[in-house]
Design goal:
Structural class: alpha/beta
Number of strands: 12
Largest sheet: 6 strands, mixed
Helix content: 10-25%
Distance between the termini: 57 Å
Strand content: 15-25%
Order of helices and strands: EEEEEEHEEEHEHEHEH
């Protein structure tokens, strides 16, 4: 097999994608516009996984990763890509998924809203510990611990970091979550929707901001702990125009 490859796009999961003839080749840690030499890591029916061995031409969107652990730690995959290119490719990947998997001919995917903070934005991460007393993240495609002294995408110091299973599901980017709340509330206001049925409400992340423009909300989620937390918040703040239900979205819709 020819081992020279031009990376044409990014695939879901972060690997670069190029073609040898019509055969797709996925190579991690590459950027669209890179031209590389690669070796085959795994052959599949219809595609190949590769590892790049030599850079023959660098993409103009390739940058030096800021984190010293990048490439060993499996927590981040895109630090070698300029942020403007990252958010563009997130939009393009979502479009491709909706076309290929969702069977939508022309999905209307709006441009990605940039995060106000590129670094130190995550309000929770998942740390791992091993029997040797090491604390860190798993290495890429491995359960081997990569010890870290700091995580540049976490908003907390290492000693203050919390595991992501402590509080159930929450949005991990605080500033982007505020953007999400603002945009959803704006859309609901523009639609003049007064009575709302909210599915997958969690602990009320969108529910409570929406009460500023809605008259009544029925909000459901199958996670009873999340619903309990939402009800406690509503009771504590004497919010009466919302009803929380522990029920799956499917059963609510088919009710």
């Amino acid at each position: 097999m020819e081992t020279h490859l031009k990376i044409e796009k990014l695939a879901y999961g972060g690997s670069g994608l190029g073609f040898v003839g019509k055969l797709p080749v996925f190579v991690p840690m590459t950027v669209p516009g890179d031209e590389i030499e690669f070796e085959v890591v795994k052959q599949h029916k219809g595609y190949v996984e590769g590892r790049f061995t030599k850079m023959t031409k660098r993409s103009p969107n390739r940058i030096a990763p800021k984190c010293q652990y990048f490439g060993r730690c499996g927590g981040c995959q895109w630090q070698h890509i300029d942020y403007a290119a990252q958010i563009l490719w997130k939009q393009l990947i979502l479009e491709e998924q909706l076309i290929r998997i969702g069977k939508l001919a022309h999905p209307n995917v709006l441009p990605t809203i940039p995060s106000p903070k590129i670094w130190n934005y995550r309000n929770r991460i998942k740390l791992h510990h091993d029997k040797k007393g090491r604390t860190g993240f798993y290495a890429l495609a491995s359960h081997e611990i990569v010890e870290i002294e700091e995580c540049l995408i976490s908003e907390s110091k290492l000693s203050q970091m919390k595991s992501c299973h402590d509080e159930g599901f929450t949005q991990i980017n605080t500033e982007q979550n505020r953007n999400l709340q603002r945009i959803v509330t704006k859309l609901v206001k523009e639609a003049n929707a007064k009575n709302i049925l909210e599915l997958y409400c969690g602990s009320g992340n969108l529910t409570f901001p929406l009460l500023a423009v809605a008259e009544k909300i029925i909000a459901s989620d199958s996670d009873s702990k999340a619903i309990d937390a939402a009800e406690m918040f509503a009771q504590k703040n004497k919010i009466a125009n919302v009803r929380f239900i522990t029920q799956s979205a499917k059963s609510i819709v088919n009710y």
